[in-house]
Amino acid sequence: MFTKAIVRPPAPNFSKGLTTADLGAPNYERARAQHEAYCAALEHCGLIVVGLETDPAYPDSTFVEDTAVLTPRGVILTQPGAPSRAGEVASIRDALSEFYPSMSAIERPGTLDGGDICAAGEHFFIGISERTNEAGGRQLAEMLASFNYTSSFMDIRGIDGILHLKSGLAYLGDRRLAVIDAMAGRKEFADFDLVRVNVGEEYAANCVLVNDRVLVASGYPGFETKLRELGCQTIALDMTEFQKMDGGLSCLSLRF
Ligand code: CIR
Q: Which residue, among 114, 112, 103, 142, has the nearest Cα to 130 in the 3D structure?
């Protein structure tokens, strides 16, 4: 069960962050409103939401997930692969130190973004991407092994429209994964039941299991219907402004 989440609202210069999406500039007021609704949904799932100050020094800093990997057995601070985001980790370390007296950290030349790490029970999928390199992935795999978790690498470079592994993959509990078609054939998923995300609804793959609910992006009825048919209680949230900055539901919080 998650009991807490760390979030950081978008700063007024949020639109200056990195993006590959060709969806236009985000509207700041709407992004703030969507972020508030996101926090309310986490509270509805029973979490205490710890809100950090906005940080205009880092326009992408609302995407807190990329700065740490939180597991029930230990916490690992990341080494974000985008140089403009490297400085985001320091304030997250401070925020987490209240809850975790000791933390490990990925060291350069390793790079690793939290968005590339998908926890599926005792197993972790580690995406090798434009942000997470093999050195970073190997460091994380060793740390996870020391916590008695298994892991496997998944190279996602070259999959169109996928910034991070979790842009196309999410764990739904009960050995079930939501996955886009471009990844569905991977042998690493052999032991899991796959919930295929409909073509054209790929953005919806970045959903988040929070205790007994699943947060999903609104506007993807095919995928949400599939989840409901499987017995998931979904909460649909507008994510349009974060999508314009390549962000999804999982990136907006660190849950623990
Ligand atoms: C970036 O390019 O780093 C941000 N604009 C978006 C990060 C999204 N994070 C995530 O998917 N975990």
A: 112
19 burial class (0-12, 13-18, 19+ CB within 10 angstroms)? middle
Determine if the peptide bond prior to 109 is cis (ω within 30°). Answer: yes
Residues in the chain, pLDDT under 70? none
181-205 pLDDT per residue, tens: 999 999 999 999 999 999 999 999 9
Instruction: List for the chain the helix, strand, coil content (%; round to 5).
Output: 35, 25, 45
Q: Determine which one of 35, 45, 118, 164 is catalytic.
A: 164
Q: Taking a C-beta distance cutoff of 8 angstroms, is the pair 207, 217 a contact?
A: yes
Output the pTM of the full model.
Answer: 0.98
Res 48: pLDDT: 98
% of the chain residues with pLDDT over 70? 100
CATH at residue 36: 3.75.10.10
Residues touching ligand 1 (Cβ under 6 Å) are 17-19, 60, 63, 65-66, 82, 85, 115, 163-164, 167, 245-248, 250-251
Q: How many whole angstroms separate alpha carbon 220 and alpha carbon 32?
A: 22
* Lookup: tokens for 252: 């907006």
- Is 251 a known active-site residue? yes
Give just the sign of the alpha carbon dihedral 49, 50, 52, 53.
positive
Contact 56, 83 (CB under 8 A): no
Q: Which domain holds residue 18?
A: 4-255
Catalytic residue flag (residue 123): no
- To the nearest 10°, the Cα dihedral for 34, 77, 173, 218? 20
Q: Count structural domains, the chain.
A: 1
